[in-house]
Amino acid sequence: MALVINEVTKRYQDFTAVDHLSFTIEKGEIFGLIGQNGAGKTTTFRMILDLQETTEGTITWDGTNINNINRDLLGYLPEERGIFPAMKVEDQLYFFGELRGKSRKELKKEVDYWIDRFELEDKRKAKAETLSKGNQQKVQLIASFIHQPAFLILDEPFSGLDPVNKDLLKGAILELKDKGTTILFSSHQMENVEELCDHLCLLKRGVSLYAGSLLDLKKQYGKTKLTIRTELSKETLESMEGVKYVHVGKDQYILTLADEKYAQAIFDSIFDGKYIEKFSLDYLSLDEIFKDKVGGKNV
Ligand SMILES: Nc1ncnc2c1ncn2[C@@H]1O[C@H](COP(=O)(O)OP(=O)(O)OP(=O)(O)O)[C@@H](O)[C@H]1O
């Protein structure tokens, strides 16, 4: 076990930003923290990093209280973006690496590798302020792990990146995991969490609605998403037993079933020996589960 958050609460006067939060991140895994604006993600990160005190509860890394561990084990990309505007890209990376106790010699290979990996070679000698916002973000991101931390926290790392750079980042996160880094990140974009994480925590107003494996969460809902291409009307589909909602897609219907057991009867009644163009039963996407869990009038 690497990081254990046990019954952690953060109060600001009489407002509770994080409420008895518990989850565990195993060594070498990628863990996603998701929740709407104000759910308490950044507050949680700041408590893990000991930038903010917990009101109650404990946080340990490898069994040691987080405020007693060597800070150089940690890496952090904060939500606020910012690097030294007048400093050259490569100098910036050396600066942050040296700040975390690495020598220039140790850093050289890493700096060269990540500059190339994030396609910043032609910007190496450029002042940070002359870079586009996305490129500045990539520099800040590299700076967060240039010292090869054991545990890396990335607050909304995907926001503001174009699709090509998002893919670069996904690749980099997986590569860091392969090298043994434990990674915790937040994202509003569920597909990123779905692609990268085996485990996650879903926060709503500081309260954990779920913490555990993504597959187990999906299994709680079962295979209740039915995609059909048919000539039948929406009303006919809605009237079938076990159908909760019918969403009309571009050239297909997406049905939400009360239980996957209803799928067979729907199949039999719709197609009845006819040609089947599309009939697929799937788990809900994380995005759909998220909306179901946090949705409703209290959002
Ligand atoms: N210093 C503070 N004093 C009072 N309330 C605070 C303070 N810092 C954060 N909060 C409140 O705590 C709650 C959680 O904030 P936090 O920044 O952790 O949310 P978040 O999940 O990171 O949101 P976002 O996705 O918008 O970044 C918010 O309601 C916020 O207003």
TrEMBL record:
InterPro entries: AAA+_ATPase (IPR003593), ABC_transporter-like_ATP-bd (IPR003439), ABC_transporter-like_CS (IPR017871), ABC_transporter_ATP-binding (IPR050763), DrrA1/2-like_C (IPR025302), P-loop_NTPase (IPR027417). The keyword Transport applies. Keywords: ATP-binding, Nucleotide-binding, Transport. Pfam families: ABC_tran, DrrA1-3_C. SMART domains: AAA. Residues 3-230 form the ABC transporter domain. GO terms for molecular function: ATP binding. Belongs to the ABC transporter superfamily. This is ABC transporter ATP-binding protein. The lineage of its organism: Bacteria, Bacillati, Bacillota, Bacilli, Bacillales.
